[in-house]
Automatic annotation (TrEMBL), chain A:
It comes from Candidatus Berkelbacteria bacterium CG10_big_fil_rev_8_21_14_0_10_43_13. It holds the Pfam family TPP_enzyme_C. This is 2-oxoglutarate synthase. It comes from the Bacteria. One of its GO terms (molecular function) is oxidoreductase activity, acting on the aldehyde or oxo group of donors, iron-sulfur protein as acceptor. One of its GO terms (biological process) is cellular respiration. Residues 50-206 form the Thiamine pyrophosphate enzyme TPP-binding domain. The keyword Oxidoreductase applies. The keyword Repeat does not apply. Keywords: Oxidoreductase.
Automatic annotation (TrEMBL), chain B:
Keywords: Iron, Iron-sulfur, Metal-binding, Oxidoreductase. It comes from the Bacteria. PROSITE patterns: 4FE4S_FER_1 (PS00198), 4FE4S_FER_2 (PS51379). It comes from Candidatus Berkelbacteria bacterium CG10_big_fil_rev_8_21_14_0_10_43_13. This is 4Fe-4S ferredoxin-type domain-containing protein. Coiled coil: none annotated. One of its GO terms (molecular function) is oxidoreductase activity, acting on the aldehyde or oxo group of donors. Signal peptide: none annotated. It holds the Pfam family Fer4_7. Residues 206-235, 242-271 form the 4Fe-4S ferredoxin-type domain. InterPro entries: 2-oxoglutarate_synth_KorC (IPR052554), 4Fe4S_Fe-S-bd (IPR017896), 4Fe4S_Fe_S_CS (IPR017900), Pyrv/ketoisovalerate_OxRed_cat (IPR019752), Pyrv_flavodox_OxRed_cen (IPR002869). PANTHER family: 2-OXOGLUTARATE SYNTHASE SUBUNIT KORC.
């Protein structure tokens, strides 16, 4: 039978809550395939953070917990200490990961806690209306930067490169993009296996698209995601 | 003549509730009325109720809130709960009969009038123009000048009219809303519902499956198709946006649409050969 979705998706609650063309949906599709491919749906516990990522609280048919402001990672670290056989996935946006909750990821990476962190980088604070964030590229027009973001405010925050400097030597850190689902799938699989087989910290940053807040159509959104790859290079950071 | 008119507009974020409210209040203010307009909505981009409280008055307005509305305009089923407290037996309730059933309205709504705005907009104009139909009818009811209202719409929505064609269609939608006459009909069932079920297309080599109940019309599959086998059709999906249709003669079953679709609404597969 031909199926349009991965088996691990929660079919009853579809269509999901994300906007049309959202990069979260593309990421979750590949995450679903990664979970299906590894056959670990019954071992997964998800944690979602504040922002658009919390709309994923019923996305996969797995136990899910929601906390605020980057504390998903330490929460799941504690969960993993109690239940070492579970595989924990901490799912958040760039606001939670690189802004308000940065210290949590730094220490989890430093201690090499076995947790897989997936960070969706869509270059803005999407849920509150697309305001300029640290990952916004200079010159981008947003509601809080009406003439384009000033280059003085930074050239784009490179989270994985920062974490690389403090992370344990065995940690897996990579960046991928929704414009290349095959690379996305293989990276997510590696990140889950790093935790499952070697008990290592894994961090994946996914460059995503946000047609609602970028105010772009399908083609322009994907083109803009290709532009992002010049600032945020794709591949394994460590 | 009634000196004060109290209006409540309710719908969902993204439907244009606040735009209609701005048009009405600004035109009324230009005509010399005293106006008050309070928008109420959350920080979310879509999916939450958006409500506008409007008062138009020939006298001075001392307090902008009110406890019972003269007109309640309801454009979305989920928004009914947020206006329950403001509807009494004298309130004239206008609802989008293409998506809201009269059964969804509270018992107090004795004077309820349906206007199938979504259906008219989709069939005759563009689906997005449905709020202009409502704005047209409301401005007529409130005796606001036809040209003045259109000029205000043009000013507020000018950027969204990317081509003269869209602008003309929007104007036609607005005028048709102005001319619309409420009918006595059975409004117990919404006249417009998005397509449901599965669209399965088969030929000797391939099988394609499209689910309109999941498709949100983002168009990523069309952009990502390497051979141009996909294009928008007339079928409508969950957000009343067009659903793609597939030309299996051109399709090479590469699976790109399936891989990219964020909503899990499309899949193409090569048929298994029987031995």
């Amino acid at each position: 039978m031909l199926s349009t979705i991965p088996k691990s998706w929660n079919v009853k609650l579809k269509p999901h809550l994300f906007c049309p063309g959202c990069g979260h949906g593309i990421t979750f599709k590949q995450l679903g395939f990664a979970i299906d491919g590894l056959g670990i749906q019954k071992e997964i516990t998800m944690g979602v953070d504040i922002g658009c990522s919390l709309l994923a609280w019923n996305f996969l048919d797995v136990p899910t917990i929601q906390t605020h402001h980057g504390r998903t990672t330490p929460l799941l670290v504690g969960y993993k200490l109690v239940k070492p056989k579970r595989i924990v996935i901490s799912y958040m946006g760039d606001g939670a990961a690189w802004g308000i909750g940065l210290q949590n990821i730094i220490h989890a990476a430093y201690r090499n806690n076995p947790v897989t962190v997936i960070v969706i980088n869509n270059e803005n604070f999407a849920m509150t209306g697309g305001q300029s964030s640290y990952t916004t590229l200079p010159g981008t027009i947003t509601p809080t930067s009406p003439v384009g973001k000033s280059p003085e405010l930074g050239a784009g925050f490179k989270g994985p490169e920062l974490i690389r400097n403090v992370a344990h030597k065995d940690a897996y850190i990579a960046r991928t993009t929704v414009t290349n689902p095959i690379h996305l799938l293989s990276t997510l699989k590696k990140a889950i296996l790093a935790q499952k087989e070697n008990n290592n910290f894994a961090l994946v940053e996914v460059l995503s698209i946000c047609p609602t807040n970028w105010k772009t159509g399908a083609k322009a959104s994907l083109d803009m995601a290709f532009e992002m790859e010049k600032t945020y290079p794709i591949g394994e950071v460590k | 003549m009634i000196d004060t008119t109290k209006i409540i507009l309710a719908g969902e974020g993204g439907q244009g509730i606040q735009t209609i409210a701005k048009v009405i209040t600004e035109v009324a203010a230009e005509q010399g009325l005293d106006v008050s307009y309070i928008p109420v909505f959350g920080v979310e981009q879509r999916g939450t109720p958006s409500v506008a409280f409007i008062i138009l008055s020939h006298e001075k307005i001392y307090y902008p809130r009110f406890d019972s509305a003269d007109y309640a305009i309801i454009l979305q089923k989920r928004a009914v709960a947020s206006v329950l407290a403001y509807i009494n037996k004298k309130t004239k309730v206008v609802f989008d009969s293409s998506t809201v059933s009269v059964r969804d309205l509270p018992d107090e709504a004795i004077h309820s009038f349906g206007i199938p705005a979504t259906q008219i907009a989709t069939e005759k104009f563009t689906p997005k123009a449905f709020n202009l139909i409502v704005a047209g009818k409301l401005s007529r009811v409130l005796n606001l000048d036809e040209d003045q209202v259109w000029q205000k719409i043009e000013k507020l929505l000018g950027k969204k009219f990317k081509t003269p064609e869209i602008k003309e269609k929007s104007r036609q939608a607005y005028l048709s809303g102005r001319k619309y006459i409420f009918e006595l009909k059975d409004f117990s069932r919404p006249t417009f519902q998005p397509a449901t079920g599965k669209i399965i297309i088969k030929n000797a080599e391939k099988t394609a499956q499209i689910l309109p109940e999941r498709c949100k019309g983002c168009g990523i599959c069309i952009v990502k198709c390497p051979v141009g086998a996909l294009k928008f059709s007339d079928t409508l999906g969950v957000f009343a946006t067009p659903v793609p249709e597939i030309d299996l003669e051109k399709c090479i079953a590469c699976g790109n649409c399936f891989r990219f679709c964020p909503d899990g609404a499309i899949a193409v597969e090569k048929n298994k050969k029987l031995k």
